């Protein structure tokens, strides 16, 4: 093969490699929290050999607009929703026909491998220890720093058994997230690659490692088993904290006002005594 032919071959291969890498990165950022390729079902189905279940045209339409396919009454789309316990796949930001076709090409290629890179997070089923739970609690609160510099859970989330006011209110309460996602594997996969618009850009740059995900799962599993603190207790704590602050503030104002009154009265009394 002469030099000119080699250049033509390289020019033909490089775009294909770039497209495959882009599709793999897109899958990693947007799909692995709910899907594996050969690793079993998570919230969504295992995508290994998905091209043998439905034709590429149908799959492309579904990837571009899952809710629209369900709303149209498509029987297979409704079946997928039922199997996912009512969870509807969101329309992924940046999805278009070309990207959907690239993802299907990636899934087909990965399905042919003995072990796909997207087999999913393999998480231990060993019983969690008290130390596992405590380390997970420390990571949630931020007293144990995450290895890759991500923010602690408490900055956006709350849990009912954390004490005090329980954490942030920007995002959902995680007391029973273990139950909502139905177990370790689904929850760990979500923690490892969260796909929400708020969490994704943060944890894309600062991902959890597998052990950190495991320790947080230990905390959430324990929280779900214990049920967490009742909302009324947290509100009562807040009420007494606010009441205590108000009492202290009023006492401080009263003391300051008394000092001010004496500071004005004393010079007046002394002036009257001098004029007698």
Structural overview:
By secondary structure, the protein is mainly α. It has three domains: 3-111, Orthogonal Bundle (Cytochrome Bc1 Complex, Chain D, domain 2); 130-226, Orthogonal Bundle (Cytochrome Bc1 Complex, Chain D, domain 2), CATH 1.10.760; 234-276. The chain is 58% helix and 0% strand. It has helices spanning 3-30, 56-64, 66-71, 75-83, 97-111, 130-141, 177-180, 184-192, 199-205, 210-226, 231-275. Helix 1 packs across helix 5 (97-111) and helix 8 crosses helix 10 (210-226). The longest helix is centred in the last third of the chain and has 45 residues, at 231-275.
Q: Per DSSP, what share of the residues sits in E-state strands of 2 or more residues?
A: under 5%
Calculate the terminal CA-CA distance, rounded to whole Å. Answer: 123 Å
Give the biggest beta sheet.
none
Question: Could you name the CATH homologous superfamily of the largest domain?
Answer: Cytochrome c-like domain
Helix/strand/pairing category: mainly alpha
Rounded mean pLDDT is 81
Integer tally of domains: 3
What's the CATH first level of the largest domain? Mainly Alpha
Radius of gyration (Å): 29 Å
Element-level helix/strand string: HHHHHHHHHHH
Provide the helix percentage: 55-70%
Under CATH, the topology of the largest domain can be stated as: Cytochrome Bc1 Complex, Chain D, domain 2
Tell me the overall shape: elongated
Which stretches of 5+ consecutive residues score pLDDT under 50?
A: 3-17, 229-236
Topology, number of strands: 0
* Discrete helix count: 11
The CATH architecture category of the largest domain equals: Orthogonal Bundle
């Amino acid at each position: 093969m002469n030099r000119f032919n080699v250049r033509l071959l390289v020019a033909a291969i490089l775009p294909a490699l770039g497209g495959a890498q882009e599709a793999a990165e897109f899958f990693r950022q947007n799909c692995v929290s709910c899907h594996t390729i050969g690793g079993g079902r998570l919230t969504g189905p295992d995508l290994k050999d998905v091209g043998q279940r439905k034709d590429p045209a149908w799959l492309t339409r579904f990837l571009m607009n899952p809710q629209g396919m369900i709303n149209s009454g498509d029987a297979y789309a409704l079946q997928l929703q039922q199997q996912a316990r009512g969870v509807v796949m969101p329309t992924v930001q940046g999805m278009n026909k070309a990207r959907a076709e690239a993802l299907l090409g990636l899934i087909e290629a990965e399905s042919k491998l003995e072990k796909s890179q997207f087999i999913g997070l393999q998480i231990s089923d060993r019983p969690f220890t008290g130390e596992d739970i405590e380390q997970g609690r420390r990571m949630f609160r931020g007293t144990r720093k995450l290895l890759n510099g991500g923010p602690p859970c408490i900055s956006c989330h709350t849990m009912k058994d954390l004490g005090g006011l329980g954490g942030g209110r920007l995002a959902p309460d995680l007391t029973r997230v273990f139950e909502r996602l139905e177990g370790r594997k689904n929850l760990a996969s979500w923690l490892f690659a969260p796909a929400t618009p708020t969490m994704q850009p943060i944890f894309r740059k600062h991902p959890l490692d597998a052990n950190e995900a495991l320790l947080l799962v230990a905390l959430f599993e324990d929280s779900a088993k214990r049920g967490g603190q009742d909302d009324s207790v947290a509100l009562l704590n807040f009420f007494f904290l606010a009441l205590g602050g108000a009492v202290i503030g009023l006492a401080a104002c009263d003391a300051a006002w008394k000092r001010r009154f004496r500071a004005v009265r004393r010079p007046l009394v002394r002036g009257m005594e001098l004029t007698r």
